[in-house]
Structure formats: C-alpha cells, structure tokens
Design goal:
about 325 residues; mainly alpha; about 70% helix
C-alpha cells in the first residue's frame, strides 16, 4: 500500500516532529514512525468502511421509503434499489475480513459520529452523478464501479466536513488523507466481480525490506545530522543556516543520507523523489534551491568516488 515515496514522507514528518519537540530519543522516533505508518492503514480502513456505512444508510432509506403511502423522489427511478444492489458496494459491505479487521481494531468512529454519514449520504443522493446512475438503465459491474469512483472523487473525498472530522481525530491524518484517498481510488479501479475479500485489504508495506529501509533512513539521517549539516554548508556559501527553512534542511539531509548510504537505490531515483517531495511540502523557491544543492553534491560525490552504487544500470 505504501510506496517508497510515502515512506520518505513519513520519515520526514518524524524528523520534523523530533526537531519541533526537541526530543532526541531515537527509540521514541522509531516508535512514532511505526505508529504513524500504521495509522495510515487505519485511515484507509475508515475510508473503506465509510462506503459500507453509506450503503447501510441507503438500505435503511429504501426500507423506509417502501413503507410510505405517498410517492417519493425514488419512485421516479426505474429501479429505486439500484444503488443498494451496486455490486462493488456489496463486495465491500459483505466483506467479513474487513468487518473483522474493524472489530479487532475497535474502529467504531462512524457509529459514534453518524452525523457525518448523514451529511455525506445527503450530498451523494443529491448529486448529478447519483441521479444519472439511477436513471441510466444500465446493469453491469463496470457501471456500478464507475459510479462509486465518481462519487468518491467528486463528493466524498473533497467533503470539508469529513476533512474536519479527520483533522479532529488525528492531526497527522491531514497529510495522510490525500495519499490514502488516491490509493483507494486506484484500488477500486482495479476491482472486478472476482475480487476476493483480501483484495480490499492490501498489506501496508510490500515486504520487510520497506520497514527496514524506513528505520535505516530515519536512524542514519538523525545520527549523522552534524555530518549532513556540513555537507550542506559547503554548497550554500551565501546562505546562513538559519535562513534555510527547517523542512528544506530535513529534505536535504535525508537526500544526502540516501545518496551516500543506500547503494542499491539509483542516484536519479533519490534526486527525483526528494525533488517531488520538496515541490509538495515546501515552497517553489525552496524546491529550486534543493534541486540546485543536490545536483552539486551528486556531481561532487561522483567525481570523488563517494557515490557508490551497486546493481545493473546504477552509478
């Protein structure tokens, strides 16, 4: 689920938290990193279970409407039960593995905060996307999947109330939400009628090597902070260290650490990854500054033989 870029961002956030708290306990930061990464998976589960809760509310709404004597707006649809029969939603709603995971982790936020489900459900049924789906007369898995994707991208993910809810629940989720939402969209796009329960519950990391990489990047960046500081000073003669933004300094130190300590990661990958992180988490001027510093350092490391890369196609 988490890519190496996500892992780099998580390490960056941990180092930033350490700098802000002035806590030099490496053990605490390693624990914070593990918990922070695990919390991203919790957020994924909550977003997935949000779809379950919306389906439940739709079932309840249709049940209530069927008992009314007066006509409702749903009566104008060719099949007013079409949404609750949505194949993708049923796959998720009837997923016992998901239900067990939610129960094991005691994730009952939507039960305790049902008003958010009502707000989003109201926005969903009032949307043009929902209305078009209910009236199009189509009956296929592809149509069902497409409407879930459109509703998620256009109605659910951008919802301000939902954003405020997650911000109140856990501040770090503010940065995690776009990553989790993007991943969930990609996952739903790949879903088909034969997707099993575990398809919707991917592993947090590809393998143990990713966790080892995260811990090593965190540890080596922190333990060699003074060393990386000197590397930066040598390439920024016109800059006072106090003028370099904290987040820029952290990105530079992590990139230098990776260039010199991770021989299996290609130089271009490291440079591109940290440049993209700088573009997202820093200012436009900062990303240009970071790119210039790293480019100078990479050239110097290659010319002096300090940049040692192993594997096919690596420098």
């Amino acid at each position: 689920m988490l890519t190496r870029r996500h892992i780099r961002v998580k390490v960056m956030q941990c180092i930033y938290a350490l700098v802000q708290s002035k806590d030099d306990s490496l053990a605490k930061q390693e624990k914070f990193l593990r918990v922070s990464m695990e919390n991203m998976y919790v957020l994924y589960l909550l977003m997935l279970s949000l779809l379950v809760e919306l389906h439940k509310m739709a079932v309840m709404h249709v049940g209530h409407a069927s008992k009314k004597y007066l006509a409702t707006a749903d009566d104008n649809f060719p099949d007013r039960e079409k949404f609750i029969k949505n194949r993708l939603l049923l796959q998720i709603a009837n997923n016992e593995s998901l239900n067990n995971e939610l129960a094991k982790r005691k994730l009952n936020q939507w039960y305790l905060n049902e008003e958010y489900i009502k707000i989003i459900y109201k926005a969903v049924v009032a949307s043009d996307v929902y209305q078009a789906y209910m009236n199009n007369g189509k009956d296929s898995y592809e149509d069902d999947r497409d409407v879930v994707l459109h509703l998620f991208r256009e109605i659910i993910a951008p919802n301000e109330k939902l954003y405020e809810f997650f911000e109140d629940e856990k501040l770090t989720w503010v940065d995690d939400l776009p990553i989790v939402n993007t991943y969930l969209v990609k996952r739903l796009k790949k879903a088909n009628e034969n997707s099993g329960e575990r398809f919707f519950l991917p592993a947090l990391l590809k393998d143990q090597a990713d966790m080892d990489y995260a811990n090593e990047l965190l540890t080596k960046t922190l333990l060699n902070d003074a060393k990386w500081e000197k590397e930066i000073e040598g390439k920024t003669p016109n800059w006072d260290n106090d003028r370099i933004a904290e987040i820029d300094s952290i990105i530079l130190k992590m990139a230098i650490c990776e260039l010199l300590n991770f021989p299996s990661i290609p130089e271009k990958v490291t440079l591109n990854e940290y440049l993209e992180i700088a573009k997202e988490y820093s200012t436009p001027k900062s990303s240009i500054f970071i790119n210039g510093v790293l480019d100078k350092l990479a050239k110097e490391y290659k010319s002096t033989g300090r940049l040692q890369k192993i594997g096919r196609g690596l420098q």
